[in-house]
């Protein structure tokens, strides 16, 4: 028998707390206590923030557009005798996420939506494969009490399940509770291609395929681009027989053009300062031809025409005067996006007409902090991180706001309006104008800026914590964090510098030097910040990435690293 | 690359006072890869050592910023890179262990064999807890660390056959004291 005796060490209390398993229980839990404790377990469930369909500023399909595809998917969600998996496969900008949003809204309205996860490369947690199942499980537990009562004991008995393999996560988070709770539900996963996954066959799909025969009455609606590892996942032997596929870019062009025309007509009619009888049919025809089946083109165009001061008709001229390319440019994939790329280039040229190398370098630096960051930064944080004036950053971003999600509040995060813009600006074969192309060098600039900012800002006891205090004991911890200036640029620098480590021979010496200075001078102060932010896991990730990076720079160190792992 | 690598190597040589300026100039053409090797090796070892430090003291670091210095750093191995680089940040005044533990265990824990005793300081340094086994009775007491006045004592239920040792451990916040013994 092993006895544990606990004392309260407060000087004025002399108390025997507990004699485990032997005599008495000192703190009898009431029902309310137990319930709160159970919910607390659920709330501690690690998950992606804002991944559900109801978060963010996504819009559904315009009424009257996409009717046939929406009806087909909605029929599938209602019929549990059909395939349990529906894959909406479409090229970038064909409107997959808008369709997924509409489906999630409709299924929710019918009471059948269990969970939704909208992956996004713009957010670190929403591009993390390991957070999909926990987030879905959390939402299912919120909706279904039966599922919740089964999930909580599983979490209590295995609190480290978040760190386990996707297979184990699937078993523990979804399969076991779903099997026992006997729930019929629909789960929406949008843009699976935006998750970081280097496996030759999508890891999530592989796990899903292995589990499909055991999952009762649950339907998975998944959208993605037709990337190789995802296509292999859906067409592999495990999932093929369970999957119904809809290829969005194979929809008859006439139907898509008609939808895009309706969209243009509706959106342009809402613009103020437009001339009478504008846009004309000729304008609409020209725009639809240029959009060539890509809704993202239509959205970017409308954003561009919505200008505070300039007349939409003048802005439209900028677009219609750009070349409408139909020429084959060597690669089929390139040709697909030619008009979209031309639109993006036109928007840039209209915004930055003056060709000044110094200004262009600032433009690229600021844009790199929008498109390359792993969590969106506000204009104010970009200014701090990149060491520019706030006004410069804000006015620059406003010039290309049709390509961004930019709010009036300078402290609100800014991000690309669509992933296709990110794809464009970091690809020299698509962004052929070197004035705007964001090369991999900007990853290194971001890395160095992060280290520079940490070097400038980190200090011992940055939050003025009382001696020996636990973070949880400091009641005003959040306001201390705010007052210490950690939020924003410094938080990003502390949590994400390692995401910008790339191998580039001619910059290695600079990077090594900055890294050495950081580790030798600021390491413990950095840990302090991660501690108060509740993000010490980031330190483990960052150091692992650093070790791997160093061994890539010096391949012979790899052996040392592998030995150190064991 | 050649320029950057060479300048890094020159910087290394500057530390050697016996080298003359001309010797430094001569060394500029040395293979840049070699200079990178000089730069990276210690950094690599430092990164591995720091990773070990974070994973070993993950719970402490996660729970308390101040305890990075009070507990984690203080318990780091004296031969580690973290100790070498940051020992000046440690809080030397807070020696908490009185008796009975190895350097790798938590400093707020102690254990004693049969017919023996042990004591520990609380993490805040204000209290001393002591465990004493004698004549089939176990006494556990908490004293004020400065005045040594007894704050609380407990005589544990008589146990017939203690076959193994007991131990004491304070919780990280210093509010609870656990006394464990095997009977």
Helical/strand content category of chain A: alpha/beta
Report the C-alpha radius of gyration of chain B, rounded.
25 Å
CATH architecture identity of the largest domain in chain A: 3-Layer(aba) Sandwich
* Major sheet description of chain A: 5 strands, parallel
Number of strands of chain B: 7
CATH superfamily of the largest domain in chain A: P-loop containing nucleotide triphosphate hydrolases
Q: What is the total number of structural domains of chain A?
A: 4
SSE arrangement of chain B, N to C: HHHHHHEEEEEEE
User: At the first level of CATH, what is the class of the largest domain in chain A?
Assistant: Alpha Beta
Mean pLDDT of chain B: 63
What is the spatial order of strands in the main beta sheet of chain B? Answer: 2-3-4-5
Number of helical regions of chain A: 25
| Overall residue-averaged pLDDT value of chain A | 86
Number of DSSP E strands of chain A: 9
Number of contiguous helices of chain B = 6
Percent helix of chain A: 40-55%
Radius of gyration of chain A: 27 Å
Task: Fill in the keyword field for this structure.
heterodimer, A: 566 residues, alpha/beta, Rossmann fold, 5-stranded parallel beta sheet, two-stranded antiparallel sheet, disordered N terminus, B: 183 residues, alpha+beta
């Amino acid at each position: 028998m092993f006895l544990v005796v606990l004392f309260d060490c407060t000087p004025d209390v002399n108390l025997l707390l507990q004699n485990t398993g032997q005599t008495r229980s000192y703190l009898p839990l009431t029902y309310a206590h137990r319930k709160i404790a159970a919910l607390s377990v659920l709330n501690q469930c690690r998950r992606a923030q804002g991944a559900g369909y109801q978060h963010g500023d996504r819009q559904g399909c315009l009424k009257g557009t996409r009717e046939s595809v929406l009806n087909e998917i909605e029929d599938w969600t209602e019929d549990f005798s059909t395939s349990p998996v529906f894959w909406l496969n479409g090229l970038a900008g064909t409107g997959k996420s808008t369709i997924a949003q509409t489906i999630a809204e409709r299924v929710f309205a019918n009471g059948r939506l269990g969970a939704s996860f909208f992956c996004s490369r713009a957010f670190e947690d929403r591009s993390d494969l390991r957070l999909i199942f926990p987030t879905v499980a959390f939402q299912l537990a919120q909706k279904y009490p039966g599922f919740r009562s089964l999930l909580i004991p599983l979490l209590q008995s295995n609190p480290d399940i978040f760190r386990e393999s996707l297979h184990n996560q699937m078993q523990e988070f979804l399969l076991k509770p779903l099997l026992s709770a006997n729930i019929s539900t629909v789960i929406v996963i949008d843009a699976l291609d935006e998750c970081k996954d280097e496996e030759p066959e999508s890891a999530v799909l592989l796990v899903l395929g292995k589990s499909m025969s055991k999952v009762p009455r649950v339907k998975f609606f998944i959208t993605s681009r037709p990337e190789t590892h995802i296509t292999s996942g859906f067409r592999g032997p495990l999932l093929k027989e369970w999957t119904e596929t809809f290829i969005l870019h194979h929809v008859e062009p006439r139907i898509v053009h008609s939808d895009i025309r309706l969209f243009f007509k509706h959106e342009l009619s809402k613009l103020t300062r437009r001339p009478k009888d504008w846009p004309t049919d000729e304008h609409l025809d020209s725009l639809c031809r240029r959009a060539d089946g890509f809704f993202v083109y239509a959205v970017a165009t409308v954003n561009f025409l919505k200008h505070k001061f300039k007349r939409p008709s003048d802005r439209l001229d900028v677009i219609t005067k750009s070349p409408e390319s139909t020429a084959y440019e060597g690669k089929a994939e390139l040709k697909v996006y030619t008009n979209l790329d031309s639109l993006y280039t036109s928007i840039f040229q209209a915004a930055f007409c003056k060709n000044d190398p110094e200004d262009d370098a600032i433009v690229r630096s600021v844009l790199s902090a929008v498109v390359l960051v792993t969590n969106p930064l506000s204009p104010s944080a970009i200014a701090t991180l990149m060491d520019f004036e706030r006004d410069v950053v804000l006015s620059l971003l406003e010039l290309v706001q049709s390509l961004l999600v930019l709010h009036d509040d300078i402290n609100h995060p800014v991000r690309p309006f669509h992933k296709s813009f990110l794809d464009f600006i970091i690809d020299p074969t698509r962004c052929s104008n070197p004035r705007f192309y964001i090369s991999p060098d900007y990853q290194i600039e971001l890395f160095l800026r992060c280290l520079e900012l940490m070097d400038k800002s980190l200090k011992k006891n940055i939050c003025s914590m009382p001696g020996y205090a636990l973070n949880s004991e400091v009641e005003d911890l959040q306001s201390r964090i705010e007052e210490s200036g950690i939020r924003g640029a410094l938080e990003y620098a502390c949590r994400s510098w390692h995401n910008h480590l790339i191998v580039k021979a001619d910059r290695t010496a600079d990077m090594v030097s900055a890294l050495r200075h950081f580790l030798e001078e600021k390491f413990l102060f950095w840990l302090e910040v991660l501690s108060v932010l509740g993000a010490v896991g980031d330190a483990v990730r960052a150091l692992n990435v650093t070790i791997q990076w160093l061994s890539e720079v010096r391949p012979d160190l790899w052996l040392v690293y592998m030995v150190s792992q064991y | 690359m050649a320029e950057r690598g060479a300048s890094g190597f020159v910087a290394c040589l500057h530390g050697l006072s016996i080298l003359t300026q001309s010797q430094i100039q001569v060394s500029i053409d040395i293979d840049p890869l070699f200079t990178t090797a000089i730069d990276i090796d210690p950094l690599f070892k430092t990164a591995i050592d720091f990773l070990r430090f974070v994973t070993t003291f993950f719970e402490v670091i996660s729970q308390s910023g101040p305890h990075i210095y009070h507990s984690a750093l203080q318990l780091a191995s004296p031969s580690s890179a973290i100790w070498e680089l940051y020992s000046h940040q440690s809080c030397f005044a807070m020696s908490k262990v009185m008796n009975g533990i190895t350097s790798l265990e938590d400093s707020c824990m102690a254990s004693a064999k049969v017919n023996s005793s042990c004591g520990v300081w609380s993490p805040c340094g204000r209290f001393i807890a002591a465990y004493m086994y004698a004549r089939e009775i176990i006494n556990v007491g908490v004293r004020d660390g400065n005045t040594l006045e007894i704050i609380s004592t407990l005589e544990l239920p008589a146990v017939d056959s203690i076959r193994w040792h007991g131990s004491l451990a304070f919780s990280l916040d210093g509010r609870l004291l656990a006394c464990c013994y095997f009977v």
